[in-house]
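the two lines:
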Amino acid sequence: MIGIISYLTFFLTITAVLAIAVLGLNLQWGNTGIFNGGVVAFFGTGAYVMVILAGPERAGEFGGFGLAWPLAMIGGALGAGILAFIVGLATTRLRHDYLAIATFGIAVAVEVFARNATFWTGGAKGIRGFERPLEAFISNPFVYGLFYLTIVLAVILLVYLALERLVRSPFGRLLRAIREDETAARSLGKYPARVRLQAFVLGAIIMGLAGGLYATFYAFISPQDLAPILTFQIWAMLIVGGAGNNRGAIAGTFVVWGCWVASGWALSSFAPADVQIYAGTLQYILIGLLIVGMLLAKPRGLLPEKLAVSTHSFEPVTPAKATQAS
Amino acid sequence: MIQALFDGILVGSILSLGAIGLTLVMHILKFANFSHAELLSIGAYCALTFDTVLAAIAPPMATLFSPFSMSAALALAMLASAAFTGGTAIIVDQLVFRRLRNKAGALTMVFASFGVALIIRNVIGLIFGLNTQRYSDEISFATMVSADPLLLIKPDQVAILVMALMAMVALHLLLTRTTLGFALRAVAENPTLAQVNGIPLESVVRLTWIIGGGLAAIAGVLYGIDNQLSPVMGRDLVLSLFAAAIVGGLGSVSGAMFGGFIVGLASSFAILLLPAGYKPAIPFLVILVTLYIRPNGLFGETR
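prediction for all of em together
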């Protein structure tokens, strides 16, 4: 029984951490229509910066500042935000697919940096020996797992509430206006490039937060954690759940991560040995099919975005009209 | 130094071929196709299959042209693979991109292209295995053309360069001397006006995929001869191809050609300055620098 609860705690913690990253992507893609091809770059930057700020001292390498964990988490999130600012500044004014290419590039660059810049990141071996917050006081690993899950759930709740508020605020309306029609937004005196940059950086900060929580959970970070598949998984979660809907983003994370874990388990326990080496390959095809299939068959996801109609509208809008407007 | 120059030009010629197709697709279909590099993989593996089959049917064809590690079978296989890859590109378009083109935005197509790339790459891995392969095992023993210790050139590499340039000349003639080429350039310039003048849009789209896929297949085979075949070669090349297309300016065929050489040279000279491990990040730096200094690329039009 303890085993099951302990596994559930583990599963829920990872799912919740990923869901935070999906929420960040939802702000960028779902609400603003910004394409981020390098989610893992911001996730990874958050993780690395956090570990370097609060992590162990490493002989001859950078880090070991012994910052308090919450401060280090904020530092990691800010690091991800600064990275997004540098990339976004060059690209948010340009044709939209430039951002897709540039963000895809930054993911490659961050991974390469993490793997090679040993002085900063520990290189291929990564950074070990991270002391998790209050680990010294809670010696029982089972209780600690529950304790950490509570922290992660608190963070996701905060992020969710903040985003819900943001989406309903005038700024959220502006984001959707830019997503739907940039020219119209500009004609109203808005600066789409600046607003897109703000949303992009804010989304990246949330992804950095998720990265920090991830690295804390494993007490370890290495270039292995920056594999491009993570970006695709996070996308699949958002598309399956329903871009533009924060609840959909969280639900999608559960569905896709559940499928991923279940398929991995099924392949490793039932597939014959010579198929085993292709287990990863098969799972990648699954993610690819999920993305393409959802876009073709159900592009709005399982929990589609609720269409908002302005309360200041002069005419009462019938529900039929509202759905047509999509 | 000279070695870096030659290596850069060699890799650049391969990147050029891939980037030309990418820039055409990006210009005519208006989306960044992240699955374009997978067409190189399809081309390379398809040629491997044809090569094996041809060598089995007609063993004399498999004799290598000394001092090259290429045979008549491989040359034929490359052409067949170009046609096959062009066809595959059309099928993928019909299955995925055309459906999204009509009902969704360009970015949804970009999204889908990532999914398509993931599927193609891993299906290739499933069919051909995850290990690297070569067209010919003799390649590693090829003699060096230049005795100068500063410059090592394999005969194969000269052949690759010549073939890549031939493909570029052929494309240039197609675009500037044939009605098909005129139609394609007209659609690239102004799709609506082109349709008013009776150019069928759908067949130009198909032509774009055939050219893009065909060139990608040739690039893939040449890459395979120079290096080796691997199911993840598309993943390793995709950023370089985009860098070449962006440096050249989206939609510009000559720009993509130059862009390919620039990215190739930048990557080969960069390893003189940086540890080799940083090489995969060079195309990204090229993209970032281009976007900051000259966002429309060398030959691109202002948007």
